[in-house]
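Now for our target.
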Amino acid sequence: MRVRGNGSERMVFAFEGFSLPDDKQLEVTIHERNGGRTLSFRVQNEDLLRARRIDHLKLQWR
């Protein structure tokens, strides 16, 4: 995937349902290929528990 300068991009990750112990976090890290940027974020168990199933996804491209 390539994102142009001053551009933006969205990504959707789908997993089978799971939960984490309250003292644990899911950490997602994305490294830029041939570059120096790294994006990271953490997800708490309470966020996973609030997640909803997506049965039908309507995408709109701009």
Observations:
- The longest helix spans residues 45-50.
